[in-house]
Amino acid sequence: MKKLVFLTAAALACTAAAFALTEIKIQGFKFVPQYVLIPKGETVQWTNLDSIIHTATSNTGVWDSGDIEPTGSYKRKFNKAGTYLYHCKYHAEMPGTIRVTETPVEPTSYGRVKALFR
How high is the mean pLDDT of the chain? Predict the structure, then answer.
């Protein structure tokens, strides 16, 4: 019985890790939050809540969401640790930063999202 409980707990932990998701809203011509801290292997989802098209485009060309229509979203999994700067290619005043760590991130009072570089 103990083995079954252990295996079930391990399976649930793996399942939770496989579905880790950090959400960034595009709202008021801003990425909210503008800075996020996530562990390696986590997925980020940008959701456009504005009434105009936006993008989430890497400053170094690593990725480009393409047009994210109003109410639309885009997901990207971050498998490599590092700091990723991005912007909306239509609105230069919309920068964002994703910092990916090698180790798990401690949840804060704001969930998995943590402000950086203040």
Answer: 83
